[in-house]
Each structure stands twice: as structure tokens, then as C-alpha cells.
Design a protein that fits this description.
With 494 residues, the protein is α+β, with helices and mostly antiparallel strands. It has a single domain, classed as Outer membrane efflux proteins (OEP), CATH 1.20.1600.10. It has twelve helices and five strands. Strands 1, 2, 3, 4 and 5 form a five-stranded antiparallel β-sheet that branches. Helix 3 runs antiparallel to helix 5. It starts with 5 loop residues before the first helix and ends with a helix.
């Protein structure tokens, strides 16, 4: 019986090794049972369509051109977004580095020099053999790790999932920046409005003081009324400085969100300016929250990464195969270097099988499985948290809307009462205490109405952020990532 040739044996071995398999569990996206609709608001098809149309640029629903410009500048210039973009680039480079290990690794080598042997040994060199010689040895080495059981492929899968998680982390950062920017902006405009209300109140307090001083001079009023009017004026004057501080701090915060020095936006944010309009209630289906919220998408990618790492741990239990190769030319004479007799090479098949590691490898597999289960549970918790936030925002939006309407009616009623109290006091038909009480009630209700408007605006901001709106139309700007917006979305899709 003839033995198979060496060439056939090598071919059979390579064929066996190239029939690779991937050990460990394959990833399947988690399935979450979600409600059909929200408990606080039954979405109509028209509302869903309106919200979907606003998802990419929800801040435009506030109808404020200054806000639109600020958002555009924040997306382009925010430093946190740029930092997240650079981290994304680093994660993609790690992925490319891992993918490169699937290919043969080739290095050029070369040696040139002289060697001399000692002549004082007990056994000297053979007669006729020189104690020194020259060496010329150009060549290259190569190694190829045969990913028979898929360890490297699982590492690439894990890194792909990490890249997706970093994309979602950057989108989550974008949502946080937009939410903070719009929240600060409406807070700034509200504080400016409250400062204007305080200015009107100060003017009214000055008029009251003048009136009481005139009546006191005519012998109709009393010094008590003058003192009360003076105290009321000083109280109103004291309300302006905290508002100016709040306005300045919010202006500084907005500038930093845009990647600029504090104080650089004073001209752009000056008053008077209209308060942004409260948009209509944004409504969306629960299933779309899972599709849009970056934190939920990031948790899903983390689960995919943890699943791939189970395969990495399992692959370490199996043999590791590699093909090291070295080939080169070696000669002591330069003119003989490129002759056939100077050729030297080595090609072997290397294999290593773990036998005993004190249970370390089995423990690593159990650890990977436990971490994958933790990632799955974290995904479920993130989904529940997302739904709770949306439900909470819907409750706040509806309740604050009703409360704001009541506050505006109260402000109108108090303004009417103040007007009547002033006319009666001027006619001598009531005391000044009634005027003071009416003024306090009016000023307080006007401020409460302004705060109520701010609460509604912030409810809308929080609801859009909770729905995961804002990243759909924003490319990964301020990075060197040469990928289109559509490709970025596809790359991060579960």
C-alpha cells in the first residue's frame, strides 16, 4: 500500500483547518413584551405622524429662530460631542486592528555582520576553519493564526458591538446636549420675562410710593402708609439681582454648550425676545421608543458584545493552530548570497491544546455567561426605565398644562382686583392695605404664571428627550469618520 505523498498530507491538513467553525452562542436580539399604548395618553394616528415628522428637529416646534441657530452651532461645536466622536474613531480602529489578525502577518528581516569565535577554548576550532566569518542574511518571516474555532471572529463581533454602543453613546450625548441647551434657553427667556415683570412691579411700587407721599402731604394719608409703600418698593427691588444672576449663568452655560467662552453670546441672547411657544403634545408608540432611545440601543449593543465574549472564552478551551514561516538567504560571501544554495526556510504547523489550567478557563466561560446575562437584564431594566420616563413626562405635561391655564386665569383676576383697589384707594373708599394686598397677589400670580409657562416648556423638552428624539437628522460631525448618515444608522441598527 502506498503512503500518501507529503504534499497530499499537507493539503489534507490545510483543508481540515480551513473548515472552520465558530464556537459559543450566536447572538439573537432580546425580545421585550411592550404595551400597545401609553396609560396616560391614547395616541391618535395624526399625533403619531406629527411626532415622527418632528423627531429629527423637535426644537423647531418651539418656533424660535434664535434657538434654531443655537442648536445648529451646538451640534457643530460642542466639545463633549467631539470627544465622543474621537472615542468612536478609536473603537473603530481597534476593530480594524482585530480584523487584521485574521490575515497572515509578514515582516521583513535582515542581518549583516561579522562573527568571531574564541581561540582560547580547550578545544580550538578545527584546522583550516577561521575563527571569524561574515554573515549576510536577508529574508522575511510570516505567521498565520488559523482561527479554526472562531476566537478572533468572536473578538471582531464583540468590537463591532462596542462600536455600535459608542455610536449610541454619542447619540445619547447629543440628546443630553440638546435637552440641556433647549432647557437652559427657555429658562433664560423665562428669567428675562420675570425680570421684565419685576421691572413693571417696581414701576407700580414707585407710583404707589408717590401716591402715598402725596396723600400724606395733603393730610389724607398716614406715615404708616408711606412706610409700607417704601418697604414694598425695596422688596421688589431686591428680586431683580437674583434674576440677573440666573440670566448670566444660563447665558454662560449656553455658550459652553456651543464650545465657546462664557459671555460670548450676550448680544445674541439679549432681551426683549418672545418666549418660545409651547409645542403640541408629542406622542409616539412604545415600540418606537425602543427604536429611538440611544440608551436602549446602547444596552442592546452591550448585550451583543457580552454574548460574543462567551464565544471568545469557549474558544480558549480548544486547540490553537498557527503556521509560522521563515524564509531567507544566508551566506558568508556577498557574491553567493543570491544563489540557490543560500536559500533557507522553515514552515511548520504549530498546535497548542490547553490541558490543565487549574479551572481558570472554565471559570472564564462561566464569568462570560454571567456577564451576558447581566447585560440582558440591564437591557430590560433600561427599557423599563425608558418607558417610565415617558409615562412620567406625559403625566407632567398634561397636569402642568391644566395648572398653567388656572395660573393665567388667576393672574388676570388679580390684575383686575388690583386695578379696582387702586381706583377705590384714590377715591378714598378703601385703605392702602387693600392696595398692598392686591399688589402682592398680582405680582405673585404673574410670577407663578411665568413659572407655569416655563414648566410647560421644560415638560415638552423632557418629553422629546425621553422619546429619544433629536439624533435622527444629525450626522457624526466633528470627526473624521467617512461614513454617510444612512450608513451610520445602519451600522448601529440591532
Amino acid at each position: 500500500m502506498r503512503r500518501p505523498s507529503s504534499r497530499r498530507s499537507w493539503g489534507a491538513a490545510l483543508l481540515l483547518l480551513l473548515c472552520r467553525c465558530t464556537v459559543g452562542p450566536d447572538y439573537h436580539p432580546p425580545r421585550t413584551k411592550i404595551p400597545i399604548g401609553w396609560t396616560e395618553h391614547a395616541a391618535t394616528p395624526a399625533e403619531i405622524a406629527r411626532t415622527e415628522a418632528r423627531m429629527a428637529d423637535w426644537w423647531a416646534a418651539f418656533r424660535d429662530p434664535v434657538l434654531d441657530r443655537l442648536v445648529a452651532r451646538a451640534i457643530a461645536g460642542n466639545l463633549d460631542l467631539q470627544i465622543a466622536g474621537e472615542r468612536l474613531l478609536a473603537a473603530r480602529d481597534v476593530r480594524e486592528e482585530l480584523a487584521g489578525t485574521l490575515a497572515p502577518q509578514i515582516d521583513a528581516t535582515g542581518e549583516a555582520g561579522i562573527q568571531r569565535f574564541s581561540t582560547t577554548l580547550e578545544f580550538p576550532p578545527l584546522p583550516g576553519v577561521s575563527s571569524s566569518n561574515r554573515l549576510w542574511s536577508p529574508g522575511f518571516t510570516a505567521s498565520w493564526e488559523l482561527d479554526v474555532f472562531g476566537r478572533i471572529r468572536r473578538e471582531i463581533q464583540a468590537q463591532d458591538a462596542l462600536v455600535g454602543a459608542d455610536i449610541e453613546a454619542r447619540r445619547g450625548m447629543l440628546l443630553a446636549v440638546l435637552g440641556e441647551l433647549v432647557g437652559d434657553y427657555v429658562g433664560l427667556r423665562s428669567a428675562q420675562r420675570q425680570l421684565a415683570i419685576a421691572g413693571r412691579n417696581i414701576g407700580a411700587a414707585r407710583q404707589n410710593l408717590g401716591l402715598t407721599q402725596r396723600l400724606f402731604a395733603e393730610g389724607i394719608g398716614t406715615s404708616l402708609q408711606v412706610a409700607q409703600a417704601q418697604a414694598e418698593l425695596e422688596t421688589e427691588l431686591a428680586t431683580t439681582d437674583p434674576l440677573r444672576t440666573e440670566i448670566a449663568q444660563l447665558s454662560h452655560a449656553i455658550a459652553v454648550l456651543l464650545g465657546q467662552m462664557p459671555g460670548s453670546l450676550e448680544a445674541m441672547l439679549q432681551y426683549p425676545a418672545p418666549l418660545p411657544r409651547v409645542p403640541a403634545l408629542p406622542v409616539i408608540l412604545p415600540s418606537m421608543v425602543i427604536a429611538n432611545r440611544p440608551d436602549i440601543r446602547q444596552a442592546e449593543r452591550r448585550y451583543a458584545e457580552a454574548t460574543a465574549r462567551i464565544g471568545i472564552a469557549v474558544a480558549e478551551l480548544y486547540p490553537d493552530f498557527s503556521l509560522p514561516l521563515s524564509i531567507g538567504l544566508q551566506s558568508s560571501m556577498l557574491h553567493e548570497l543570491f544563489s540557490a544554495d543560500s536559500l533557507a526556510f522553515q514552515l511548520v504547523l504549530s498546535a497548542a491544546q490547553p490541558l490543565y489550567h487549574g479551572g481558570r478557563l472554565d471559570a472564564r466561560v462561566r464569568q462570560a455567561r454571567a456577564e451576558a446575562e447581566a447585560a440582558r437584564l440591564s437591557y430590560r431594566q433600561t427599557v423599563l426605565t425608558g418607558f417610565r420616563e415617558v409615562e412620567d413626562r406625559l403625566v407632567a405635561y398634561g397636569n402642568d398644562k391644566r395648572r398653567d391655564a388656572v395660573l393665567h386665569r388667576a393672574a388676570a383676576d388679580n390684575a383686575l382686583a388690583l386695578s379696582r383697589a387702586r381706583r377705590l384707594y384714590a377715591a378714598g373708599l378703601t385703605g392702602f392695605l387693600d392696595v398692598l394686598n392686591a399688589e402682592r397677589a398680582t405680582y405673585a400670580s404673574e410670577n407663578e404664571a411665568a413659572i407655569g409657562d416655563l414648566a410647560r416648556l421644560r415638560d415638552a423638552v423632557s418629553l422629546y428627550v425621553a422619546l429619544g428624539a433629536g439624533w435622527q437628522g444629525a450626522a457624526l460631525s466633528a470627526t473624521r469618520l467617512p461614513v454617510s448618515l444612512a450608513a451610520q444608522h445602519a451600522m448601529a441598527a440591532p
